[in-house]
Amino acid sequence: MSNSPTPSVSGPTIAARLATFVADLTPQQVPAAVLERARHLLLDAVGIAHASTHYDFAHRSLSAMTELSAGAGKTPVIGLATKLSMRDAMLMNGILIHGLDYDDTHAAGVIHATASTFPCALGCTAQAGLDGEAMLTAYVAGMEVGTRLASVAKGGFHQVGFHPTGLIGAFACTLVAGRLFGLNPAQLAMAQGITLSVASGSLEFLQDGAWTKRMHPGWAAVAGLTAATMARHGFKGPDRPYEGRFGVFNSYLGPLAKDCDLSLATADLGEVWELAKVTVKPLPACHFTHACADAAAILRERHGLRVADIAAVRALVPAEVVKTVCEPVATKKRPQNSYDAQFSIPYAVATALAKGRFGLTELDDAALRDEQVLALAAKVEYEIDPDSPFPTYYSGEVVVTLNDGRELRHREHINRGAADRPISNADVERKFMDNMALVASAGRAARVRDLVLAIDRDCAAIDIQRALAARG
After folding, report:
1. Mean pLDDT on 84-89
2. Among 283, 149, 171, 281, which Cα is nearest to 217's?
3. Burial bucket for residue 470 (CB in 10 Å: 0-12, 13-18, 19+)
4. Helix 216-232 crosses helix 185-195 at what angle (to 10 degrees)?
5. Which one of 1, 58, 204, 451 is at 20 to 30 Å from 98 when CA atoms are compared?
6. Are 35 and 46 in contact (CB under 8 A)?
7. Residue 451: Cβ within 10 Å count
8. Residue 10 has what pLDDT?
9. φ, ψ for residue 444 (rounded to 5)?
10. Domain extents for the chain?
11. Which residues contact 363 (CB under 8 A, 6 or more apart)?
């Protein structure tokens, strides 16, 4: 297939090929190591969802979802005692998994695919009366589709203001829901066409730290469920949602559509497993900030830096991330809320230089008002990194100029957690236990861990759903 987003028609459409892959995938076709990593990605998501229940955004979201469910809900929610309608529970679970910006990322696609595909798979598998193996297989299928489709754009969606986690996640969730509800390949292909009219996700939250990004993955799950259900009942959608004249890439990317590589949408399906390349976050912030934050912490430790000794700081970042974590400059240097801080190179670098760490406590209100950190953040300027390997890696380099004129620098060319520098499964388990400690006893955390790591071993999905919820 050519690199044009509107190729000549020859052979099955992308939607048809993805539909066939998803419909035909069996658990036996997925390598054991990929299934093991999949279980750990789910564990990471479950831990983050529990931790999110500690924060105000979760409870305000729950209030809204409870009102929408109007007391008719029967579906448990991760980490909470409230039951919602299936669709509202999907949305709520997505908010919880993505709400702390601590969830996994596929680098080439720049997409948080688990945050949408897992809530969709969990809800649909339970509704269909299937087991954990069916859920895990559908989740893997959705991850393979979502990461590939997002990779087609080569990071372009962020440049034009769209969030691929919501936008592309909807197509992955459509196939997850469709598979679990027994759609045939023709129906699965049609469902993707329907998704084209319900997929969304704006990056305008970057201007003021709004909460809307938190709902993108869950909304993708809702969109996928809706599209798959409509297709199952014979509703018709466009045949070419990807390569069409007004397909997702042409419509959403505009002039950048010329840079797309549509062949990536179906490349090596069933042979190369993109899920194995998904990276787990070591820091609760936008992945684009991690390398610079780590570089700053290393400089502080290596040279015994004190804030009072620092005259100026430069952060070298990939050109593609500037709109996300460096601009607008005023709110990046003085975040107005935790979400501003999670998407701020100046704040991440200043925090790491001042404290040697960047964790959830560095997003509390008191931390955001720390005048020493804010004064240092005001000294942090960004430059385009001419040697950036983006999007293969989210590199970062920090250069500190001291009051005596000396210049200290450190580069993290491969960000921690990248496919070539992975967070191990043991690390994921430690991160899970740390997140659970915010809201649950060590005993409950261990029980949930053991359940998730055996999720595909003769357990009904409805029982998994119930076990992940808090007791009322």
Report:
1. 97
2. 171
3. middle
4. 130
5. 451
6. no
7. 18
8. 60
9. -65, -40
10. 14-278, 287-412
11. 284, 338, 341, 342
- Kindly tell me if the per-residue pLDDT of 2 is higher than 70: no
CA distance 106 to 275: 8
User: What residue type is 153 in one-letter code?
Assistant: A
Alpha-carbon distance of 370 to 358, in angstroms, equals 14
Q: Which CATH class is domain 287-412?
A: alpha beta
- CA distances to 30, 55, 237, 269, 379 from 142, rounded to whole Å, are 13, 29, 20, 12, 43
Tens digits of residue pLDDT in 129-155:
999 999 999 999 999 999 999 999 999
CATH class of 14-278: mainly alpha
CA pair distance 278, 142, nearest whole angstrom? 13
In this prediction, residue 5 carries a pLDDT of 57
* Letter string b/e over residues 310-325, b meaning 16 or more CB atoms within 10 A of that residue's CB: beebbbbbbebbbebb
Residue 7 has pLDDT above 90, yes or no: no
Long-range Cβ contact pairs of 200-203 (< 8 A, separation 24 or more)? 200/166, 200/167, 200/170, 201/162, 201/163, 201/164, 201/165, 201/166, 201/167, 201/169, 202/161, 202/162, 202/163, 203/158, 203/161, 203/162, 203/163, 203/323, 203/324
Q: Tell me the two tokens of residue 277.
A: 């390349």
CA 375/CA 334 separation, integer angstroms: 9
Crossing angle of the two packed helices 114-127 and 169-180, in degrees rounded to 10:
20
Q: Which two tokens stand for residue 453?
A: 């790591």
How confident is the prediction for the chain on average, in pLDDT?
A: 95
Tell me whether the omega of the peptide bond preceding residue 391 falls within 30 degrees of 0, making it cis: yes
pLDDT of residue 1 exceeding 50, the answer is: no
Token pair of 76 as six digits: 């448990």
Contact of 179 with 188, CB cutoff 8 Å: yes
The single-letter DSSP state of residue 183 is -
Q: What is the mean pLDDT of residues 179-199?
A: 98
C-alpha 312/C-alpha 57 separation (Å) is 35
Cβ atoms 284, 409 nearer than 8 A? no
List the one residue out of 378, 368, 375 whose CA is nearest residue 336: 368
- Maximum alpha-carbon separation in the chain: 73
Q: Does residue 395 contact residue 318 with C-beta atoms inside 8 Å?
A: yes
The DSSP-derived string for 71-135 is T---EE-TT-S-EE-HHHHHHHHHHHHHTTS-S-EETTTTB--HHHHHHHHHHHHHHTT-BHHHH
- Tell me the per-residue pLDDT of 196-246, one tens digit each, with 9 for 90 and over: 999 999 999 988 889 999 999 999 999 999 999 999 999 999 999 999 999
Q: Is 234 left (phi over 0), alpha (psi -120 to 50) or beta?
A: left
Structure tokens at 256: 């950048």
Gap between the Cα atoms of 23 and 182, Å rounded: 8
